[in-house]
Amino acid sequence: MSNSAASTPDSESTGNALTSLNGKISFWRGIPYGFQHVLAMFVANLAPIFIIAAAAKMDASQSAALIQNALLVAGLGTLVQLFPIWRVGAKLPIVTGISFTYVTATVALIASQGYHVVIGAVIVGGLFEGFLGLTAKYWRRFVPPIVAAIVVTSIGFSLLSVGATSFGGGSGAKDFGSWQNMTLGLISLVACLAFQLLMKGPAKQLSVLFGLVVGYVVALFMGKVDFSGFQNLQIVSVPKFLPFAPQFDAGAIVSMALLYLVSAVEVIGDTTALTKVGLGRKPTDKELAGSITGDGIISTISGLFGCLPLTSFAQNVGLVAMTKVVNRKVIASGAGILILAGFVPAISATFNSLPEAVLGGCTIMMFGNIILSGFQMIADAGFSQRNITIAAISLTVGIGFTQVSDIFASFPAMFQSIFAHNCIAMSFIVAVILNLVLPKEDHFLVTRNTGDDDDNNNTAAATDADDTKSAAESTVSETTEPTEQTLS
Prior knowledge:
Blueprint: H1 2-18, H2 27-55, H3 60-82, E1 96-98, H4 103-112, H5 115-134, H6 136-139, H7 145-167, H8 179-198, H9 207-222, H10 250-279, H11 285-304, E2 310-312, H12 314-323, H13 328-343, H14 345-352, H15 356-381, H16 385-403, H17 413-419, H18 423-437, H19 441-451, H20 453-487
């Protein structure tokens, strides 16, 4: 009994520290939780690099250098968001990584002008997003709660295919959808759920890490772990600064700037969802501005290291929704692991050997949590007729049209590269337009009240009748009570 009593306060203090932004927790105790955040985003952080390296026909040494740099800048970006410098950073548990938003446009630019032009556009575009963050108070009014809720919901829906693709073995996998991959995904998902249901206290917040470990061990026995990445590894390798000399082209910069605008919207959605699921509140204007500014500045730094822009990762927002772990020191330990992996290739090779089916099994529920958070935010904004109209049309157009991207075949190539496959951007644009053109709520109320005048009159008449009846009953009661008392 004494041992149990002694352990309870420590367990409770650890749990409270994990769910507090600035809770006191030892470095070593926080590492597993930070490690969990790294695993949740590791594959998604490197996937854009693999695509770009193939499009640019880079050799093995160039690809390896980009992977190192991608890990380094992801860790640095996370630290900036955790511990802001001036107005750069949100002071929130935001985990950053290489964004998929820019892949399609980047591949097109590589084919026409080369990767050096891409790097120049990334560097300048990041400064543009930084400017958007610093001036957020002037345009923030165009993103009211209902629009932010739609962005978060569309983020969740956009990730469902990502989780399903990973569950099946990963995009382009030769054995995609095989029973081995489906079994691995299912085992990881069940392990994750079982751990969360059976464990108590702070330990249950490590359910995703447990599922990944169980899935990895099973994958080893099934021969599904690829060890080819461990060949010819150096013990330590220093990331290269400016591995590609930037070239600056006005057209490429404008194209990238438009994508940075879309990314700023995603950051608003991610930050809003993060504070909702992790802190139970809305983000402050300072936090939103800092998150966008940090996103832009670290993207410029990423360009200097030859990588694509970074953004806040929705995968980690989903993880926060499951675990409620928001401690900045804990997340910082994950950032430290990313930075260390940038210098020690063996670490990145270990992470990269994790089968995608295992990752898919653990992340598919996380992505569902983001959708539910979006629904909750829509409810918080209110189910008025105006909000229902905005949400219904913007989500239908944004999600539905991007699933049939050929519908945009007659649109300019620039429009297609930004919106045809990006339901987040499409939903946001439609929501903003509807928010501007639809009449304010007073119009809906006036219309509704006008149509309900007869009902209101009937209700008023019924109320008067009830009041008369109540008064009569009260009078009878008052006259009978003395008589009863006298008789007694």
